[in-house]
Design a protein that fits this description.
- The complex is a heterodimer of chains A (335) and B (386).
- Chain A is of the alpha/beta class and 335 residues long.
- Chain A has 14 helices and 8 strands.
- Chain A has one domain: Rossmann fold, CATH 3.40.50.
- The two termini of chain B are 19 Å apart.
- Chain B is 58% helix and 12% strand.
- In chain B, helix 13 links the parallel strand 6 and strand 7 (278-286).
- Chain B has an 8-stranded mixed β-sheet with strand order 3-4-2-5-1-6-7-8, sandwiched between helices.
- In chain B, helix 8 (161-174) packs antiparallel against helix 12, helix 10 (189-210) packs across helix 11 (212-225) and helix 14 packs antiparallel against helix 15.
- Chain B has 2 domains: 7-287 and 364-382, Rossmann fold (3-Layer(aba) Sandwich); 296-342.
- The chains are: A alpha/beta (335), B alpha/beta (386).
- Chains A and B meet through helix 3, helix 4, helix 5, helix 9 and helix 10 of A and helix 6, helix 9, helix 10, helix 11 and helix 13 of B.
Chain lengths: 335, 386
C-alpha cells in the first residue's frame, strides 16, 4: 500500500511551531520521517540555527546545503515500499541572503563583498523582518522547486519554525515588510512568499505538552494564526504524553495498601508495607496527573483541529525513538 | 559533587542589587525570577521583578490581571520583615519611545516616532527587546527606589543573545556603518578609501534588496536620530558595566534536558569570558523518586513476577486487585526511575564539566504555579537547605 489519505494531502509545506521546551524540533524531525515513505523525498529545514536536527540524527553540524540525513521507513518488509529520503538544511539568515542575491540577481560575488564589509550582518540583523522573509522565502522556494521533467523536487518540506510566541510575525512576512518597504524587490519577494504561506499548500502545526502554559500558548497561537486571512492552521501534536498504567476506573478507587503489600511480598521484595505505601502514593499522584492531562487535552480539543499524540520517551530521543514517533504520526493520519 | 547554590545567602546580602535569570526558552526562567523576587521581598528586601515574558498566568499568580510597563505593587505578600514586591512587564516599543521623547525636542521626537524605519526597528528588530530590557534595568537601578531588582531575560533563540544584542543595536545606532553607507562623502577618509572599491556595488545590492524607498526612510531616520546616537552607545556601555559590577548576580536556569544544559554551558563559559559574576545554576523541574533505592530493573522484574502469578479473580478479588495495582505501581516507579536516571546523567555532563559552579535543584511540580503560595514553594526549594 503506497497511497492512502492523510489529514494533510495537498499540503507541501508543513510548518511546525510550539512553546520552547515542548519538543518542536523532535516533532518536526519525526514528521519529516513519517512523510518520507514510498520513495518520497522530504526536506527538513531548521530555521533557527541551533543545529538541533544534526544532533537528533546524530550527524555533525549541517552546513547551508541540502543533504540527505535519513532514510524513511518502508511500510512492508517485502520491499514493496522502499521508504523515502529525508534531506536536511540548516538555514542561517546570512546564507539565505547570499542565496537570494544569487538566485534573483546572480550577485553572489557582491554578496561576498557585503559579507566582508560586515554589511550582511547589517542587512540581516538590522533591517527588520528581512531575515524572516529570507528564511521563509527559502522554505517556500524549496516547496515549489521543480525538476527538469516538471515534477516537484521535494514531495514535502517540513520547517522547524521559531517558537509560537514569534511564529505569527515570522510567517506573516508581507505584513512585516509592508510597514517598511511599500514597493521594491524585497516587497515583491515577500508577497510571493506570503502567497505560498497563505495557501492550502501550507499548514502550520502546533506542538504542545499537556501542561497549562504550553497549552495556553498553543491556543493563543491558533487564535493568532486564524486571524491572518488564508493561513491554514494544521494539527495539534501532543508531545511527551505520559501513558496511563491503569484505567481511569482502576485509578479512581483508593489503592488497597495491605493487598499491595502482600502481592509485593510474593514478588520477593522487602519492607513491603512502607514500599506499598510509597507506591500507592505514586499511583495517587499518577491519577492526579492524568486528570490534569485530560483537562488540558479537552482544552486543546476545543480548538477543533486534528490531534496527534506522541508518548513520552523516558530514555531520551535517539534515531530509533524518532522512527517510533514517526510511525505514531503515520498511524494517526498526520502523514 | 558541586556545592549547593544558597539563594538565601545571595538575597540576604544587601550588597546584591541585581539578579539576572538567564537560560534558553521554556525552562521556567520567569517563574524562577518571580519566586526569587517574592522570597527576597518576604525576607525584607525592597524588590522589583522585571519580566519580558507576557505570560498572563504568571501575572495572575501575583494577583494582577496583567503587567505593564510600570512597576505595580504586589498585594498579599508577607511584609512582616519590612520588604515589598513590585512587578512589571517590559513594553519594548513604549520604552524605546520614552527614550526618544526624553532625548529629542518635541518636533524631532514626533518626526522620529512617525518614521516607518523607526517603527519597524522599535517593534521588531531582533535585538530591540534585549536592548530595552537592559535599558529598563538601568532605569530601575538608577531610580534607586528598590534595593533589589530581579530580571529575567528575553526568550531568545539562544541564551546568549541578550548579552550581544545591546552591543549590536548600540553599534548600529552609533551609525558609522550606516552613515558611511548613506553619505559616503561625509565619512572619514581612510574608511572611504577602503570602501570605495566595493561601494557602488554595495549600495547597488542594498538598493536592489531593500528598494530605494527603504534606504530613504533609513536616511531620514538617521538624520533625525543623529543627536541621539552617541547617547545610545553610552547607555549600552553603562548597562554592560552595570552587569559586571559586584552588586550583580547571574543565575543560569536550565531544565535537566540536553539542549537546555548545552545552552547553560555556553552561557557559563561566556559569563566567565566577560567577567560577569555567575552565582550558580538553577536546575529546574527535576524528577526525583521517593523510592530511590528500588531500581527500575528490579521494579520491572517484580512487576513481571506479579503479572504471571495473579490469583484467580473470582475466588480472591481483593487479592487479585492487590497484584494488579502493585504491578502497575511498580511499572510507574520504573518509568520514574529511568526518567530520573536520565536527568541525572544529563545534569552530570554539565556538573562534571563545571565542578565549581553551585547548583540548586527545584523539583518538578505536578501543576504550574498559580498563586503566591506556588511561587513561595519554588522560593523555598531555592532557599537554604533545611
Amino acid at each position: 500500500m503506497t497511497a492512502r489519505d492523510t489529514d494533510w494531502d495537498g499540503v507541501r509545506l508543513h510548518v511546525v511551531t510550539g512553546k520552547g521546551g515542548t519538543g518542536k524540533t523532535t516533532v518536526a524531525a519525526a514528521l519529516a520521517l513519517a512523510l518520507a515513505h514510498s520513495g518520497r523525498k522530504v526536506l527538513l529545514i531548521e530555521a533557527e540555527g541551533r543545529q538541533g536536527i544534526a544532533r537528533l540524527f546524530d550527524r555533525p553540524p549541517l552546513p547551508y546545503e541540502e543533504r540527505k540525513i535519513a532514510i524513511g521507513p518502508g511500510e512492508a518488509d517485502d520491499g514493496r515500499d522502499p521508504g523515502g529520503d529525508v534531506y536536511a538544511l540548516a538555514i542561517d539568515p546570512e546564507g539565505a541572503l547570499l542565496d537570494y542575491l544569487q538566485m534573483f540577481y546572480n550577485m553572489r560575488s557582491a554578496g561576498h563583498v557585503l559579507t566582508r564589509l560586515g554589511l550582511v550582518d547589517f542587512a540581516t540583523t538590522i533591517a527588520p523582518g528581512l531575515s524572516d522573509v529570507l528564511v521563509t522565502g527559502k522554505a517556500t522556494e524549496a516547496a515549489r522547486r521543480k525538476q527538469q521533467g516538471g515534477g516537484y523536487v521535494y514531495d514535502s518540506v517540513v520547517l522547524d519554525a521559531p517558537p509560537t510566541g514569534r511564529v505569527g510575525r515570522f510567517l506573516n512576512v508581507s505584513a512585516e515588510v509592508s510597514g517598511l518597504a511599500k514597493v521594491g524587490p524585497i516587497r515583491a519577494h515577500a508577497d510571493t512568499v506570503a502567497r505560498v504561506i497563505k495557501s492550502p499548500q501550507t499548514a502550520v502545526h502546533l506542538v504542545s505538552t499537556l501542561e497549562e502554559m504550553p497549552v495556553q500558548e498553543a491556543l493563543d497561537g491558533i487564535a493568532e494564526l486564524r486571524g491572518v486571512t488564508g493561513m491554514q492552521v494544521g494539527g495539534i501534536v501532543i508531545n511527551m504524553a505520559r501513558p496511563a498504567v491503569l484505567s481511569q476506573e482502576e485509578l479512581k478507587a483508593p489503592p488497597d495498601v495491605p493487598a499491595m503489600a502482600k502481592a509485593l511480598g510474593t514478588a520477593g521484595l522487602h519492607s513491603t508495607e512502607t514500599l506499598a505505601e510509597a507506591l500507592a502514593d505514586g499511583l495517587a499522584e499518577h491519577a492526579r496527573q492524568l486528570e490534569l492531562q485530560d483537562r488540558e487535552r479537552t482544552e486543546l480539543e476545543a480548538a477543533g483541529q486534528p490531534i496527534y499524540t506522541l508518548p513520552m520517551v523516558a530514555e531520551g530521543i535517539d534515531l530509533a525513538a524518532l522512527h517510533r514517533l514517526a510511525a505514531e504520526l503515520r498511524d494517526q493520519g498526520a502523514a | 559533587m558541586n556545592p549547593r547554590l544558597d539563594m538565601d545567602r545571595i538575597i540576604d546580602d544587601r550588597r546584591t542589587r541585581i539578579i539576572v535569570c538567564c537560560g534558553s526558552g521554556g525552562v521556567g526562567k520567569t517563574t524562577a525570577a518571580a519566586a526569587i523576587g517574592l522570597r527576597a521581598a518576604e525576607r525584607g528586601r525592597q524588590t522589583c521583578v522585571l519580566t519580558v515574558d507576557p505570560a498572563r498566568r504568571l501575572a495572575q499568580s501575583m494577583g494582577l490581571t496583567s503587567l505593564d510597563n510600570t512597576p505595580r505593587l504586589i498585594e498579599g505578600i508577607d511584609t512582616s520583615s519590612g520588604g515589598s514586591l513590585h512587578a512589571m512587564m517590559l513594553d519594548m516599543k513604549r520604552t524605546f519611545d520614552e527614550i526618544v521623547e526624553a532625548h529629542a525636542d518635541p518636533v524631532r521626537a514626533a518626526q522620529i516616532l512617525a518614521n516607518p524605519f523607526y517603527q519597524s526597528l522599535s517593534s521588531s528588530f531582533a535585538g530591540t527587546q534585549e536592548y530595552m530590557a537592559m535599558e529598563k534595568l538601568g532605569q530601575l537601578r538608577r531610580s534607586d527606589e528598590w534595593d533589589l531588582i530581579v530580571v529575567d531575560t528575553p526568550p531568545s533563540r539562544s541564551a546568549l543573545d541578550f548579552l550581544d544584542a545591546p552591543e549590536r543595536l548600540g553599534r548600529f545606532l552609533d551609525g558609522r556603518l550606516i552613515r558611511v553607507l548613506l553619505s559616503p562623502a561625509k565619512a572619514t577618509r581612510p574608511f572611504t578609501k577602503v570602501l570605495n572599491a566595493g561601494f557602488s556595488m554595495m549600495t547597488g545590492a542594498l538598493t536592489r534588496l531593500l528598494g530605494a524607498q527603504v534606504l530613504r526612510d533609513a536616511q531620514t531616520f538617521v538624520t533625525a536620530f543623529d543627536t541621539m546616537f552617541g547617547g545610545f552607545r553610552e547607555r549600552a556601555d553603562a548597562t554592560y558595566k552595570l552587569l559586571q559590577a559586584p552588586g550583580t548576580s547571574f543565575l543560569v536556569v536550565a531544565a535537566p534536558e540536553p539542549d537546555a544544559l548545552r545552552e547553560a554551558s555556553y552561557f557559563v563559559e561566556r559569563l566567565d569570558e566577560e567577567r560577569m559574576p555567575l552565582a550558580g545554576l538553577i536546575l529546574n523541574r527535576v524528577h526525583r523518586s521517593p523510592l530511590p533505592r528500588l531500581s527500575a530493573a528490579r521494579a520491572l522484574a517484580a512487576a513481571e513476577t506479579l503479572d504471571s502469578s495473579i490469583p484467580n479473580d473470582d475466588t480472591a478479588p481483593a487479592e487479585a486487585n492487590g497484584y494488579t495495582m502493585a504491578a502497575a505501581a511498580l511499572r510507574l516507579h520504573a518509568e520514574r526511575m529511568s526518567l530520573s536516571e536520565r536527568e541525572r546523567r544529563v545534569a552530570g555532563a554539565f556538573t562534571s564539566a563545571h565542578p565549581a559552579i553551585p547548583v540548586v535543584e527545584v523539583p518538578a511540580l505536578p501543576v504550574d504555579v498559580h498563586d503566591l503560595a506556588g511561587l513561595r514553594d519554588v522560593g523555598t526549594a531555592l532557599g537554604s537547605a533545611v
